[in-house]
From TrEMBL:
Gene: ALG1
Subcellular location: Endoplasmic reticulum membrane
One MF term in the entry's GO annotations: mannosyltransferase activity
Keyword Hydrolase: no
Keywords: Endoplasmic reticulum, Glycosyltransferase, Membrane, Transferase, Transmembrane, Transmembrane helix
Source organism of this protein record: Nothobranchius furzeri
Domain of life: Eukaryota
Principal location class: endoplasmic reticulum
Signal peptide: none
GO cellular component term, pick one: endoplasmic reticulum membrane
Membrane topology: Single-pass membrane protein
Upper taxonomic lineage: Eukaryota, Metazoa, Chordata, Craniata, Vertebrata
Protein name in UniProt: Asparagine-linked glycosylation 1 homolog (Yeast, beta-1,4-mannosyltransferase)
Amino acid sequence: MEYRGSLVIISTCLVLLVSCFLADLDVTLPVMYVTVAAVLWLCWGWLRRRDGGTHQRVCVLVLGDIGRSPRMQYHALSLSKHGYQVTLVGFLGSRPHQGVLDRKKIQIVAISEVKGLQAGPKLLTYAVKVVVQSLQLLRLLLTMKLQAHLLMQNPPGLPGIAVAWLVCALRGTTFIIDWHNYGYTIMALSLGAAHPVVRLAKWYEHLFGRLSTLNLCVTNAMKNDLQKNWGIEATTLHDRPASVFGKTSLNLQHELFCRLANTYPEFQHPGTVGEETKAEATVFTVCSPNDGSVTLWRDRPALLVSSTSWTGRTLLPYSFNQNSRTTSVCLCFPHQILLMI
């Protein structure tokens, strides 16, 4: 109805404009204003036009490699299993999860990664990259079918948060941010906290991050920090392993530890054991030369693997001291803890 009404208004304005021109009447400017307003109204109605499937469509936006964004892939899988038609947008640097590829309700839309200028000042090349990526993302989000919700990962949020917010405001889409960390703190690792780009990124993230409709985060610590420092109310959605994950066999564990031992001395066994050589034994496992069976050392260390992007704001020792599970691990494995980040 809005679309047809705007067409009627525009047609009427055009008729009046032509009539005034032919009659040499000085009312052209007001009619032009009305015509421009009607055109804008028509465009706004076109952007918000809905169909029967709009309420079941969700865009999951990753301004990074989809294959290296497991949490966002799980979001897409979960939403599709609940009946939503999911458009997964991001870079295709590595292969996404097979379950995502096989799911008919998930459509992957690849965006090309902008490399920026090949020469010139770094600040200029970065600015050009941001502008080009903003225009690319804006065009993509405005031309796709109207989505009921847009779920975006942050970081990276520059320039995605501002573009996503603008599109959601124009199209009446619910804007949801899944906070994994702060983008400006990651930038500060290489540029320094006092760098102008980092300070600008912090201001940008703080401004547009508060314009989202809903917010998710990975931990309660992130939730508290968002509320305390930025005034953002978020819901904690803890990571859970997907159904495809299971216990790795000892043979595969041994193969992995042997490969790691070739690069990292920490994985090598400190000495030989009987007839076994260092190639057959790691600090965690030992392979029998007789039957090829693999067993775990009783005095093996505990292996803790973190997938978190640790930054200067993260107190790693504090995290261990406050984690009851880590305390339990220390009691079960008192010899040594091997941490991989």
